[in-house]
Write a structure and sequence with these properties.
Number of strands: 6
Structural class: alpha+beta
Strand content: 15-25%
Strand order of the largest sheet: 1-2
Oligomer: single chain
Number of helices: 3
Length: about 90
């Protein structure tokens, strides 16, 4: 059994494309598209959507980016405990 993932083309719902081939397909299929303009997700260029705000609520690439950003902020603002006069005092790392 093949482990290839497939996705539906945002420009033509009758197109079922292997995910690894989607970027090339989108370039070709976009040329024949006559519907409303689709926005390109800045977290995954293979995501083409009408409503970006709604898309970002479900986009796993956006969530991964935000999780990494939150972790980065947490690590840069974290303080290490130190002891002074028997009391624990936090100092920046």
């Amino acid at each position: 059994m093949s482990e290839t993932e497939f996705a539906i083309c945002p420009y033509n719902e009758s197109h079922r494309i292997a995910v690894f081939r989607m970027p090339k397909h989108l370039v070709k299929c976009e040329l024949n598209y006559r519907g409303p303009p689709l926005k390109i997700c800045k977290y995954n260029a293979a995501h083409r959507v009408l409503d970006m705000e709604e898309h970002l609520k479900e986009c796993p690439y956006y969530r991964r980016f935000m999780d990494n950003k939150c972790l980065e902020i947490a690590l840069t603002t974290r303080t290490a405990p130190t002891q002074e006069d028997g009391h624990v005092v936090s100092t920046p790392l």
